[in-house]
Amino acid sequence: MTADAPAIVWFRDDLRLADQPALHAAAESGRPLICIYILDDGTDGVRPPGGASRWWLHHSLTALAESFARIGGRLDVLRGRPLVLLRQLASASSAASVFWTRRYAPAEREADAAIKAALQADGVEVRSFNGQLLFEPWTVKGKSGDFLKVFTPFWRAALNGPPPALPLPAPKSLKTAKWPAKGPARVDIGDLGLLPSKPDWAGGLRAAWTPGEAGARQRFDYFLDSGLRRYASDRDRPDVEATSRLSPHLRFGEISPRQIFHAVRHLSEADGATGRDAEKFLSEVGWREFSYNLLFHAPDLTRRNFQTRFDAFPWGEPSAKLLDAWRRGRTGYPIVDAGMRELWITGFMHNRVRMIAASFLIKHLMIDWRTGEEWFWDTLCDADPANNPAGWQWVAGSGADAAPYFRVFNPILQGEKFDPDGAYVRTYVPELAKLPTKWIHKPWIAPPDVRKAAGLASSKTYPSPIVDHDTARQRALAAFASLRETSTTESDARSHSRV
After folding, report:
1. Does 305 participate in catalysis according to the annotation?
2. Whole-model pTM?
3. Structural domain of residue 81, as residue ranges?
4. 441 and 337 in one domain?
5. Among this protein's residues, is 108 annotated catalytic?
6. CATH number of domain containing 260
7. Do residues 332 and 462 make contact, with C-beta atoms less than 8 angstroms apart?
């Protein structure tokens, strides 16, 4: 192997230059680099990104390519099956090694194992790195050595272990290899077809976000300056700016969890007044870690109930009319509708409202959580292979350390508690903007003269509730009771079979 044989750096969900261990190690090797991104169009089981994620990916790749150009590097984009393309590129360039950041979803892990074996058989070194998590799933264990299924002991064990490594600096310059003459065909980012065109529904996304590493850094700095000091008290309020809104940037690896962890800890140590807020915020980062821990140890998390007793849950027949009302934000419950419209407009939804909207679909409409998870996968910019299914299973009661199924959120009370002045609802459900705060979360019971003055004389302007809360709650509780009875009967049968 000659000294000028290049090293290939394969970017995936790690679209940044700073604290990029794979890129750092490749640059430290002294070899010229070929840095690539592959839009995977053929690996079995790899879930294709949804519409909002595709929009984000286009702009994130564009930003990363510009960052490479500023330091003498180059990002080359390919499309197809990574196994085929990497072997072809390594052969054509006589590459010495391939570097990448590890992934944890089951299909991706299997694909990476197959690619590694094939490249090594071809005589190419493969090196992988942790650039996505603070603590990789196999490093956090209980006292018995088992993986932990409850968040609090998981996070305690994680923090009691070795601390996350300090972030690595971004390279100031890169030595770049020429693209080999017989290498696979490169693709312009614009030709990947990631952006919506007919129609172009991404105007709200463009107004709300700046994808890319610089955008992530800007948003994080703003949060440290303006949001962290009231995070613990205000994080459940969708009507105020108290959350970081870093989740899409984390999803695409434009900022690393190590950068976040150490910056927040440093600020907390320098300013003791932020201690409670900092620890609460880092515990939410910990929930992301916990979700990946679950996905690694329960690889069918996206499709199967973590608690198998929920396999017998009596879901209702999905009503296209009710499901469409939920998706469009026309349920008649303002806090639910505001969240669903925020999602459609911006590709994001405040976390408290995600729980309310998910609970409504699952428990008020009796629609399987997987249906909601698929909708969020398509419409969220931060649709994450671990967080998305883990969050839905948490609300459904079927997940690890989940909310009890019998906890049925009352959307009226949730709205009054967490959007007390109705500012969030008025932002995303403007037809209710003139309604007095007293009625903003229950417009259907406002006096007729109040509704008329607010422009709500007709139910066509804003719908009445598609289901009655009390009726829906009792139906959900009855379904859960039948599940418990089924579980008890099955348990008794198993006990008798052992006698």
Report:
1. no
2. 0.95
3. 1-131
4. yes
5. no
6. 1.25.40.80
7. yes
